[in-house]
Amino acid sequence: MTFSSNSPDPHSLESQSPGNNSVARVLVVRNDKLGDFMLAWPALATLKAAAPAPHITALVPSYTAPMAEACPWIDEVILDPGDEAPASEQQQLLKTLREKAFDAQLTLFSTPRIGWLGWRARIPLRLAPATKWAQIFYNRRITQRRSQSAKPEYVYNRELAEALIKALGLTPGHATPPFWPEGSASRAQERQALAASLPLSAERPWVFLHAGSGGSAVNLSLDAYAYLACEVDRQLAAGHHARPHWILTAGPGEEANADALTETLTAHGLSAHRQPPQAGLAGFSRSLAAADAFIAGSTGPLHVAGCLNVITIGFYPARRSATPLRWQTCNDDDRRLAFHPPESAVETDMTAIDLEAAATAIAHRLAALEAAPSTDIIRESP
């Protein structure tokens, strides 16, 4: 990680740290998809752990705004109307940012519009990755070479937060999983609510399976997920372990596929159920705390589960920009499994993943839950 800076900036202050008696006002920008935003939570937690803790405002699109409102590390949310918004909305956003008088802007993924916006808003300290020509609008730039995918995305984000903490003269703190502690603490409540709707036993693992991709991730096919679930179920039964309850989740427009997969698993003798409807994105996200494990492609819901410190089981393509390392979930190291095609396969050929080996690893991980049963679950009848 390398620091660099621009030539003298007309918006710079003699000192880019707030006064001793003031709290730094920081604008954090991550205005893209859900998974990207969830991988910003470790950086936000790192900022909030600094002393004195800064006031954090997030600039986000309307889609992720419910999650920004739920984030314990964010004090205020401003909606970004987006690149295609009319000039009047862009001017109103600029006016709002100027009125907020931010001390610093941290842009985790920069675009020319956002860089120019921060410069025009006269934010004195503006920090972003040193990538693409949009970096000219920033007076603190961090060379990370993310295209090499040498680190997880959330680690790159944390490095930017740590650089900003140093630039503001704050004292670093320490942030560890779960990065959504309130959501994780609601596990018992979420399990009670799910058990009130579905015939579930707490003596069996509750495995959430999200077969959708949100249109952005290469994923397993429905047939592949059906084979995987059946093989996990078979191996657990053969080892005299509790067979899971499979709870099928879906995003907008993915309901039909989730229904079809539920019917397929039920026809094969598995205990499979569709998740009941949830109250919006934040409600759906909180509901994932009920899971003992969450299986999905590299999608937003997988990264929500990571923030909740749920066991995550992810399926990734082999291309460098989307590897299991680059898009690793931000839960504890021992609470994630990841699978991808071998190096000899076409990088997006998900059929090359050894599903039998994956099922064996998953079954082994679920069997280990019996040795450490949860203490936050009220026992339901089978």
From TrEMBL:
Annotated InterPro entries: Glyco_trans_9, LPS_LOS_Heptosyltrfase
UniProt keyword terms in alphabetical order: Glycosyltransferase, Transferase
GO term, biological process aspect, one: lipopolysaccharide core region biosynthetic process
Superkingdom of the source species: Bacteria
Gene Ontology molecular function, alphabetical: ADP-heptose-lipopolysaccharide heptosyltransferase activity
Keyword Glycosyltransferase among UniProt keywords: yes
One Pfam family in the UniProt entry: Glyco_transf_9
Gene Ontology CC annotation, any one: cytosol
Protein name listed in UniProt: Glycosyltransferase family 9 protein
